[in-house]
Amino acid sequence: MTAVAGAPAATTAQRGTHRSTKPRRRGKSPVLTLIMLVMFGYAVLPLFWLLANSSKTSADLFSTFGLWFGGDFHLFANIADTLSYNNGIFLRWFGNTVLYSVVGAGGAALLATIGGYALAKYDFPGRKLLFAVVLGAISIPGTALAVPTYLLFSQIGLVDTPWAVLIPSLCSPFGLYLMRVYAADAVPDSILESARIDGAGEFRIFRTIALRLLAPGFVTVLLFSLVATWNNYFLPLIVLNTPDWFPLTVGLNQWNAQANSGTSGAVDATYSLILTGSLLSIVPLIIAFLVLQRFWQSGLATGSVKQ
Amino acid sequence: MTAPATELRPAGARGLARPFLRLRVAGYAFFLPFFVVFLITVVAPLLYAIYLSFFQDRLIGGTVFAGLANYTRAVGDALFGAGLLRVALFLVVQVPIMLLIALGCALAIDSGRLRWPSLFRITIFMPYAVPAVVAALMWGYMYGDEFGLVGQIGDVFGVTLPDLMSRSWMLGSIGNMVTWEYVGYNMIILYAALRAIPEELYEAAEMDGAGAIRIAWSIKLPALRPALLVATVFSIIGSFQLFNEPNILQKLAPSVITTSYTPNMYAYNLAFNGQQINYSAAVAVVLGLVTVVVAYVVQLITARREQTL
């Protein structure tokens, strides 16, 4: 963030004489800021709505205005209700989501990093063909693969086990693409050469030198895979039947189905659970993005989209 | 790219062929783990789907080879056709709107003329971290004209606002949801590409007397073309894959969102509610083909002489 804000300032200082002729450095535009404030509202208001309504009692949810808090601040009571409902099934779903995301996204990012590094820095026969094949796979709708994946997995007995969610999460063609472009820039050939002259093995070079240089790219791929697995809905919906293995997304929609088919007495309470559960399910990802933003933004800027 | 620099190596330390071989083996070894997973999770299901699509499950005789029968059925299937048209309409309207907003935001944040640029960058991006399921539930409840936010706002002003979950509004309502989810993501991709433009280009342009608009038009937009292309292709793929949002909203508006509302929902319902696995596979393959063809054509039109590899 500071680097981004600092860059134009530094160049202005270097060539201060031209300041008056440079429109880019001409102070802030209130109109532009106002337009962006509208966008800010568009992005944030639904999230604020979720927060406000997660803090209401079931009665207030239907009787008070949606964009402000209700009479009592009921957020913590709602969280307690959500976590304890149905013997704490929500915590189980949360744990499943963490498992699928950490193992799936972590594995996907690692495989993409090693593979992308191989494509960028080693000249082996078939390299371009392999890359083209993987790149082509990006445009295959993942959902078109979900049904045959289910059928294949059901034949080898993986359906309704965590493996059915974990294994498909390990493959990220887009991650490989990103890492190949990133590694081409971030790992200078000269460093690899000098390490080789010093007698280092290829694996050791990767582990001790390349991996460090690739870190921002790795974090970027990790975060985007993390979002993909944390938010994954279609695949787990298909391959899982036992609620004990559901991730949050499938579980929340099961509550939603209950709320819209149940008797009216139960309905109100379930809506509160859904809203509070939704709020709880988005907090970890937002924290991850905020904490790691310096890494993933530089990872994107350095490599990913330059061609 | 990486010419093994044999000339750097002390002469006679090792044979010439050995380092070559060593690098090749290492290259394959590093690529192998990804490739194995790729074969299991992409290639195998894809081939299996194609295989399945050539068979039919008959009451008498069990599963038999049916040639292209499933495909001819899919091509003539009115439900499938209507779904495809629906996502095509969605694509033509929603994707340009979303990308233009994302482009505007990225240019604004990059312009240096905005107050609190990093605040805007983070907050507009934030909805991307929200699961589609949660986004659909949230917006679905807000859209509601009775107890939802839209209804409440209507009450405040004493008017009845249109029902955003009705037949005529539903596609637009889903479009708004998808825009909300992905506008920040596309903005970040474009913004990252803007940051990669060398500062000297701006300096040279300013020296030549170019203004902010001119710089945006003549330097930034051309430099953004590869990133815009990537964003467009991903958005096209996303539109054809549309499933999560309508599937969630189905519970809230079952009469509007049918089981074939999008081609993907159709393929899903054929397989899991209709037991027509072979036909579902054919539908999925056709959908995949349509997606690849459209994405490729768009790439051809926009990329001109640009290299994609």
UniProtKB/TrEMBL annotation, chain A:
Share an example GO biological-process annotation for this protein.
Answer: transmembrane transport
According to the UniProt entry, which residue ranges have a biased composition of type Basic residues? Answer: 16-27
| Chain intervals with Low complexity compositional bias | 1-13
Keywords in alphabetical order: Cell membrane, Membrane, Transmembrane, Transmembrane helix, Transport
Concerning Pfam families, the annotation shows: BPD_transp_1 (PF00528)
Membrane-related topology note: Multi-pass membrane protein
Task: Please give the start and end residues of each transmembrane region.
Answer: 31-52, 98-120, 129-151, 163-183, 213-235, 271-292
Gene3D superfamilies xref list: MetI-like
Fetch the InterPro entries from UniProt: MetI-like, MetI-like_sf
Q: What is its main location?
A: membrane
| Region described as Disordered | 1-27
One cellular component term from this protein's GO annotations in UniProt: plasma membrane
Tell me where in or outside the cell this protein is found. Cell membrane
Q: Domain ABC transmembrane type-1: where?
A: 94-292
Family assignment? Belongs to the binding-protein-dependent transport system permease family.
Protein name per the record: Carbohydrate ABC transporter membrane protein 2 (CUT1 family)
Query: What is the organism field in this record?
Result: Nonomuraea polychroma
TrEMBL record, chain B:
Q: Write down any Gene Ontology CC term.
A: plasma membrane
Q: Where are the transmembrane segments?
A: 28-51, 87-107, 119-142, 169-194, 223-243, 277-298
Q: How does it sit in the membrane?
A: Multi-pass membrane protein
- Please tell me whether the keyword Cell membrane is annotated for this protein: yes
Question: Where is the protein situated, by its record's location annotation?
Answer: Cell membrane
Q: What is its main location?
A: membrane
Cited SUPFAM superfamilies: MetI-like
The question of whether Flavoprotein is a record keyword is answered with no
What are the ABC transmembrane type-1 domain coordinates in residue numbering?
84-298
- Keywords tagged on the record: Cell membrane, Membrane, Transmembrane, Transmembrane helix, Transport
Stored Pfam families:
BPD_transp_1
Gene Ontology terms describing biological process: transmembrane transport
Annotated InterPro entries: MetI-like (IPR000515), MetI-like_sf (IPR035906), UgpAE/MalFG_permease (IPR050809)
Q: Record's PANTHER family?
A: BLL4140 PROTEIN, DIACETYLCHITOBIOSE UPTAKE SYSTEM PERMEASE PROTEIN DASB
Q: Which family does it belong to?
A: Belongs to the binding-protein-dependent transport system permease family.
Query: Any idea what this protein is called?
Result: Carbohydrate ABC transporter membrane protein 1 (CUT1 family)
Species this protein is from: Nonomuraea polychroma
